[in-house]
Specification:
Elements lengths: L6 H22 L11 H10 L1 H13 L11 H32 L5 E5 L6 H13 L3 E7 L2 E6 L9 H5 L2 H9 L1
Antiparallel strand pairs: 1-3, 2-3
Helix pairs in contact: 1-2, 1-3, 4-7, 5-7
């Protein structure tokens, strides 16, 4: 338990996940009864059922030593994430689909496994970048070692391409979101 230093932090994460689970329960059971929007059963069972995912989330965070920080709940970060998904990522996704379609039609591939060093500060940023790269057709994140990502590309620009050739400006956006 390196990341949880005090019982107060453990309690803070438990309360956060409990409230999140309860809000999700209330959202799912809305319009089920006549007490405001919910039935009596929903209002009684919701707080009870919300305990289980909260306990599980807390155990997972402690057991796997995941460094979950409250800064990731900042609404501005979520706004930047939404702009990233609906802007640069969506554009790269469409462009990659067209490139893969061209490769399939012509049969011309220049496959390679390339190494990039995005210089991201934490593992959450690396996972977000790796997933963004993998979700883009024609690329697949194979491994991460010491802050470097190893990626299989269908259309490589050479044995040592620039990071922009592999993942565009994903790393710059992810640095804003997760650093």
């Amino acid at each position: 338990m390196k990341n949880f230093k005090t019982p107060g932090e453990i309690l803070k994460f438990f309360v956060f996940f409990y409230l999140l689970s309860l809000a999700f329960w209330l959202f799912l059971t809305a319009f089920s009864g006549n007490i405001i929007l919910w039935s009596a059963e929903s209002l009684i069972l919701g707080p009870i059922f919300s305990l289980f995912p909260s306990l599980i989330a807390n155990l997972i965070l402690m057991r796997l030593d995941i460094n979950f920080q409250l800064k990731y709940l900042n609404p501005f970060r979520w706004f930047v994430f939404c702009v990233y998904v609906l802007g640069p990522f969506l554009f790269a996704l469409i462009k990659a689909n067209l490139t893969v379609a061209y490769i399939v039609i012509t049969g011309k591939t220049k496959t390679a496994i390339v190494e990039i060093e995005p210089k991201l500060k934490n593992s959450i940023a690396l996972v977000l970048l790796g997933n963004s790269i993998t979700l883009t057709p024609g690329t697949l994140t194979l491994d991460e070692r010491n802050g470097k990502l190893y990626i299989h590309c269908l259309n490589s620009k050479g044995p040592k391409p620039k990071i922009e050739d592999v993942c565009g400006n994903f790393h710059k956006w992810i640095r804003r979101i997760a650093s």
